[in-house]
Design brief:
Helices cover 48% and strands 12% of the residues. The protein has 177 residues and is α/β, with parallel strands linked by helices. It has one domain: NAD(P)-binding Rossmann-like Domain (Rossmann fold, 3-Layer(aba) Sandwich), CATH 3.40.50. A 5-stranded parallel beta sheet has the order 3-2-1-4-5, with helices on both faces. Helix 4 links the parallel strand 4 and strand 5. Helix 1 runs parallel beside helix 2 and helix 3 packs parallel to helix 4. It binds NADP nicotinamide-adenine-dinucleotide phosphate. The site of NADP nicotinamide-adenine-dinucleotide phosphate (NAP) has 21 residues, from helix 1. It holds the Pfam family adh_short. This is Ketoreductase domain-containing protein.
């Protein structure tokens, strides 16, 4: 497995903490060239340093909010401008809000929808032309809540169902999501 990702360019959203950060460090060990994004630049810098400590190339760190259309466009464009290609898009950035249909607001719904679903649609649209060229892949980080109900996280469950269906149907037929 060593250097299995050598020469591969991987863009990871939500790489400043949690699953995205762990994925970044793991792929750095495997030799990937990484483009890492998140809103918190301090956290992003820390993850970037952890990646470099594995002996990999210096990751490209891009601060941006995936619910902001121009930030999202900039993230994909800067990645391709810097590395000249894109092989893997990891759609990981996401938020969790607690509540049921009786206790949540439409503002909460919009916030979670825009972060966990709409941004993925836009990122995928922007990345697909580059992934077609590289015959690359998309990884969508969803949740078991997309297929199993858990009380009090209704919003996440409903929106993860959308992502799970997209992933099974494949947003673009060329990709296994
Ligand atoms: N951990 C679990 O048990 C679990 C279970 C089910 C699903 N998931 C899914 O797995 C993914 C990662 O979860 P996690 O547990 O690792 O969460 P986490 O530690 O809270 O990390 C979430 C990441 O998403 C980024 N993010 C959130 N909103 C963003 C926005 N508007 N623009 C840009 N980046 C944004 C955060 O970066 P900044 O704060 O720097 O912006 C952070 O890097 C999520 O999609 C989540 O729904 C996790």
């Amino acid at each position: 497995m060593a250097a299995a990702f050598a020469g591969k360019v991987v863009l990871i959203t939500g790489a400043s903490s949690g699953i995205g950060a762990a994925t970044a460090v793991h792929l750095a060990r495997l030799g990937a060239s990484l483009s890492l994004t998140g809103r918190n630049l301090d956290n992003l810098n820390r993850v970037g340093q952890q990646c470099e400590q594995t002996g990999s190339l210096k990751p490209l760190l891009l601060k941006g909010d995936v619910t902001n259309e121009s930030d999202t466009k900039q993230i994909v464009e800067s990645t391709v401008a810097h590395f000249g290609r894109l092989d893997v898009l990891v759609n990981n950035a996401g938020i969790l809000e607690m509540g049921t249909i009786e206790t949540t607001s439409l503002e909460q719904y919009d916030r979670v929808f825009n972060t966990n679903v709409r941004s993925i649609y836009q990122l995928t649209q922007l990345a697909v032309p580059h992934l077609v060229k590289s015959q690359g892949n998309i990884v969508n980080v969803s949740s078991v809540n997309g297929i199993r109900s858990v009380r009090l996280i209704l919003i996440l469950i409903e929106l993860n169902k959308i992502l799970s269906v997209w992933s099974r149907q494949q947003i673009s037929p060329q990709f296994i999501c």
